[in-house]
Amino acid sequence: MRSYKVTELENHRSVSIHYRAGRASITLAATFLTPPKPRVRAVQHPNPAIHAPAPSSSRSIAVKPTTRSAIFLEHHLGAVVGACAGAIAEATQEFQSGKLTLTAKLRSGEYICELYRLRQFMISDFPNFDTIAKERGVEMLRACNVSAGAANLLVDAVLEILAKIVRDQAN
What is the pTM of this model? Predict the structure, then answer.
């Protein structure tokens, strides 16, 4: 059984997902800051000035600054990896009890599909996607009182499945 709770306040949104299968249950929760509302300019200039930086004689290296949207993406990535891990844990428990349901299979597949889409979206800007996914996924599970060993094991299983899908799609 899965239940959702979404709370929206002025400057943040809180989402919690609760999974229950038999006697076992897990709750995944995440809080996201909502972007500020756009401000209206008091003065509109018909020809805004464009200032280009002066050319540098030294060699420079392009560095991508960390933006608020990057932080949101990383938090969302952690939530998706945590949801995948929870769904896989639920399906594993059902399989071990001999009663693997179609619902558990489909839920796991949906979350893995969402993770694959997120990877396709982020991989060009975040070449270290797997490292970020592991860190944020473990953080999300640890925030839900999952032991460090179990969190690492579940996230590794999720990333292993994702790697197999990526490899299959590349061929």
Answer: 0.60
